[in-house]
Amino acid sequence: MSKTLIRRSAIALAFSASMGAGCATTDPTTGEQTPNRMATGAIIGAIGGAATGAMAGGDDGRNAAVGAVVGAIAGGAVGAYMDRQERALREQLAGTGVAVERVAADQIRLVMPSDITFDTAAATVRGQFLPILMDVSSVLEANPSTMIDVIGHADSRGSEAYNLDLSERRAFAVSSVLIQNGVQRERILAYGRGELEPIADNATAQGQQLNRRVEIRVRAVSQS
């Protein structure tokens, strides 16, 4: 793991810990408190071990939390449960530019190219993309026995620190939209991977475009 990623992991962990003290910010002049959407959403996760464990299928602490709220799926029913969710996502996302991939019996991956989700170098979801994320939210809300990882990725242009920061902010932005549209915040872990996980050659413009993306990984909460 790079020094920059380690530093970012420490910052995220410290911030996550501080959320327990409160989910509002206070104006130093007026004393007025306003909700902190990012803290309230509880979507800043441990970018290091927990995040890697989640991607690898490990238990990052959400299994018990989500299972207690919505109930885990019996092992034999996981495939059918995820089949229905995959069909619903494919129907909702047909023609949008978002790829729906079944990567395992218990896991679905959505790949959202950043070029259709965000303006260049920006981390605010484009207005025309919000209805697409609302459709994703409706499917995820209707299938609550899953955990959701929202992962930002970048190409290799710019510094490592810049790419990691941008990928994090984009992941947080997508997560916020999901939460605001009814997806339970306890199910979501959002983090950035910067330029560390390319899926194409960064030496070409086409490869760079493919590497700039946000992924949503949906994994079933199953009974052990």
Specify the biggest β-sheet: 5 strands, mixed
What is the H-and-E element order? HEEHHHHEEHHEHEHE
First CA to last CA: what distance?
A: 31 Å
Q: Supply the CATH architecture.
A: 2-Layer Sandwich
- Counting structural domains, the number is 1
Low-confidence stretches: 1-58
Strand tally is 7
Strand content: 15-25%
Helix percent reads 40-55%
Overall pLDDT level: 79
**Strands ordered across the widest β-sheet:** 3-4-7-5-6
Give the helix tally: 9
Question: What name does the CATH topology carry?
Answer: 60s Ribosomal Protein L30, Chain: A
Question: Measured on Cα atoms, how large is the radius of gyration?
Answer: 17 Å
Class from secondary-structure proportions: alpha+beta
Structure description:
It contains nine helices and seven strands; from the N terminus they run H-E-E-H-H-H-H-E-E-H-H-E-H-E-H-E. It is α+β, with helices and mostly antiparallel strands. It has helices at 3-18, 37-41, 49-55, 62-70, 78-93, 114-117, 130-142, 160-180, 205-211; strands at 24-26, 33-35, 99-104, 107-113, 146-153, 188-192, 213-220. It has one domain (43-220): 60s Ribosomal Protein L30, Chain: A (2-Layer Sandwich), CATH 3.30.1330. Strands 3-4-7-5-6 form a five-stranded mixed sheet, sandwiched between helices. Strands 1-2 form a two-stranded antiparallel ribbon. 44% of the residues lie in helices and 18% in strands. Helix 5 packs antiparallel against helix 7 (130-142).
